[in-house]
Write a structure and sequence with these properties.
Number of helices: 11
Helix content: 25-40%
Distance between the termini: 23 Å
Largest sheet: 7 strands, mixed
Shape: globular
Number of strands: 15
Structural class: alpha/beta
Radius of gyration: 21 Å
C-alpha cells in the first residue's frame, strides 16, 4: 500500500505582533500546504507540542533573542514530539517517535537529520509528555544550569525563581538530589507555593505577589543563599544579589520580567548599580547560558534523570491543553502563570 503525503496541514500563524500583552486575536489557525516528501525526509504527525516562556520574546520585532523571531503572516514553530507516518530515510522507519522543532502544526515534513541524536525517543522508557518536559529541553535546562553553570555543591542553599514552572519544578528536585542542603523558591500564589513544598522538594516557597522578594528571602533563607537559578530577572534578581553569600553563583536562564506590557514595567527597572555592586563586594559569579551549547551533557542527563524517574525520586508534572485551536490560549495562560510544570498542547495519541 502506498502512502500519500497530505497536501496541507493546520498550523498556528501570527496575525500581528502584540500591542502590549498578547491576545488570542493575534493568532490564527490556518491550512497551509505541505511540501512533497523528498529523499532523506520524514512526514511526522505531531502528538504533543511544547509551549515555552521564551516564545513571548519571539513575538516582538526587535531581534534580541537566541533564535529567530516570529514573522506576522507566518507559522509559529517550537519543539514538538510526534510519530513518523512516512519516511524516505531507511534509518528512521514509520512508527518511530521523534522530537523536532516544527511544532504549532498538526503535521510536518522535516529532514531526518533534524531529529538529531537527541530526537528519537523510546516511549517504553517514559510517558510521551515527559520527553518534552522533565526528560526534554526544560529538564535539561535545569540540569545544565545547576551542574555546569552554577556548579552546585553539596550543602548549598539554592533559590529558584518561577519555581512552579517547567524548569523550576525540575530545578528544585534536581538541586535536592545533587546535594543541596536547603532549596527555596518563588511562585505566583499560595497554592503553587504549597505545591512546591509538598510535591517538588522545596523546603519553603514565597508568593512573589504577596510580599517583596527581598523580604521573602530574608524569611525563608535567613542565612543567605549560595546559588540562584534565575528564570525571571528584575526584582527577583536584585533580591538574590543581596541574599547571596560571598562566592555565590547565579545561573542566568531567563528574564521573563523584561517582556510584556505595563504590568511588568516595574520589574524591568529594579536592577541597577546599587544592586550590581553586590557582585563585586561578594565576589559573585553571574553566568548566562543557552542550553543548546551544552549538548555534550545530554547523555549524562538522560541516564541520570531517567534513573531518578524509574526510582520514583522525581515527579514529572505537566499542564496539558487539548487541540491546536487552543494553542494560543495555552501560551497566554502560561505567560499569566496558569501552569504547573510543563505546558503542553496535545494533538493526538
Amino acid at each position: 500500500m502506498t502512502t500519500v503525503t497530505p497536501r496541507s496541514t493546520p498550523v498556528v500563524t501570527l496575525v500581528r505582533r502584540p500591542d502590549g500583552e498578547p491576545r488570542t486575536s493575534d493568532f490564527a489557525v490556518e491550512e497551509r500546504p505541505l511540501p512533497p516528501l523528498g529523499e532523506g525526509q520524514l512526514l511526522v504527525r505531531n502528538l504533543y507540542m511544547s509551549v515555552d516562556p521564551s516564545m513571548r520574546g519571539r513575538l516582538e520585532s526587535t531581534e534580541k533573542h537566541y533564535t529567530h523571531n516570529f514573522t506576522p503572516g507566518s507559522p509559529l514553530d517550537g519543539r514538538a514530539l510526534g510519530v513518523v507516518e512516512e519516511s524516505r530515510c531507511a534509518s528512521v522507519p514509520p512508527g518511530t517517535y521523534v522530537r523536532h522543532q516544527l511544532g504549532w502544526r498538526e503535521r510536518a515534513v522535516l529532514d531526518a537529520a533534524d531529529t538529531d541524536g537527541a530526537g528519537r525517543i523510546d516511549p517504553r522508557l517514559a510517558p510521551l509528555p515527559t520527553w518534552l518536559g522533565l526528560l526534554g529541553q526544560t529538564g535539561f535546562t535545569a540540569y545544565v544550569g545547576l551542574t555546569r553553570i552554577a556548579a552546585l555543591r553539596p550543602g548549598d542553599t539554592v533559590f529558584v525563581s518561577a519555581a512552579a514552572g517547567a524548569v523550576g519544578t525540575a530545578a528544585g528536585q534536581f538541586a535536592r538530589l545533587l546535594g543541596a542542603d536547603h532549596v527555596v523558591g518563588t511562585a505566583g500564589g499560595p497554592d503553587k507555593c504549597a505545591l512546591l513544598v509538598k510535591e517538588f522538594g522545596y523546603d519553603a516557597a514565597a508568593d512573589h505577589r504577596a510580599e517583596p522578594v527581598r523580604d521573602a528571602l530574608a524569611r525563608i533563607a535567613p542565612d543567605g543563599i549560595d546559588v540562584y537559578f534565575d528564570n525571571v530577572g528584575g526584582e527577583q534578581l536584585a533580591a538574590a544579589l543581596h541574599a547571596l553569600r560571598t562566592g555565590g553563583r547565579v545561573a542566568l536562564c531567563g528574564m521573563m520580567s523584561q517582556f510584556g506590557g505595563d504590568r511588568r514595567t516595574e520589574g524591568r527597572r529594579t536592577v541597577d548599580i546599587n544592586h550590581l555592586i553586590q557582585a563585586v563586594l561578594k565576589r559573585l559569579t553571574l553566568c548566562g547560558f543557552i542550553v543548546r551549547d551544552h549538548d555534550d551533557l545530554r547523555p549524562e542527563f538522560e541516564q541520570r534523570v531517567a534513573g531518578w524517574l524509574a526510582e520514583g525520586r522525581v515527579t514529572a508534572r505537566e499542564t496539558v491543553v487539548d487541540g491546536l485551536e487552543n494553542a494560543a490560549g495555552a501560551l497566554l495562560s502560561l505567560l499569566d502563570g496558569g501552569n504547573v510544570g510543563k505546558m503542553l498542547v496535545r494533538l493526538g495519541d
